[in-house]
User: What shape does this take?
Amino acid sequence: MALAQRGLSPAQSTLELTWWGTAGFRVAGPSGVFLIDPFLSRNPSARPILDLKPGQVREADQIFISHGQFDHLLDVPAIAGQTRARVYCDATPAQTLIREGLPASGITRVEEGRGVLDLGWYRAKARPSRHVRFDLPLVLKTLIRVNRRFFSLLPLARDYPAGRVLSWRFETGGLVLRHFGSAGSGSEELADLAEEKIDVLLLPLQGHSRICRIALEYVRILKPGLVIPHHWDDFYPPLSQLVDIRPFLEAIRGAAAEVEVKVPRIGRPFRI
Ligand SMILES: [Zn+2]
Assistant: This one.
């Protein structure tokens, strides 16, 4: 692990990350735990298999949401209810959470780009981002897969509107993490972000038939120390599909060999 190259001593690298599938992460630090987009209600056909249900999550101080779609928000009322974690999100997912029974007093609506949240052992800041635009080949493939189940799956899309998409930045002990819940950033957003130091980029590979090429653009422009590809799993078949990320990994080796890559194994904690 090339933390030293990024000016960090091993003593500073005390973060433990666990990928929970989709864009979901558990981040454990020196004095607490926060979650990003936790979604554990995968259906029985989901791959890879994750042996963790929402009711088993007992520890979380904060939950950060990138956007309001079901695969980012559905389990948040249950998890926030049992852990008493405060939820930070945009106004649209906040409305959904309140409809689903979470008290408004436990939710902080984030005003985009305004202010840094000081949470003791780390700081968090949201900035506006965008959802990837599903392209026609992907939509057609999905419709063929879903077929007659279309109408039974429709409420999941209808009842969980995305709202404004947020990208989160977390900083602790000199280490900067940048999380995207969807890879729809325009060139302006990426150019803006290129000014910042990003040690760890949590990058979603889902939602477009050319997602590997899109993801490579993020890496080339943002030049993170380490990239962690996520959301490539088949989290809710037949709505989702397993994304082959090998072209992305090969392209990094060719075009951005200095960038380290960590392909996470679902449910397995790792240190950064
Ligand atoms: Zn998603």
About this structure: The helical segments are 70-73, 76-83, 91-99, 136-146, 150-158, 187-193, 211-222, 246-255.
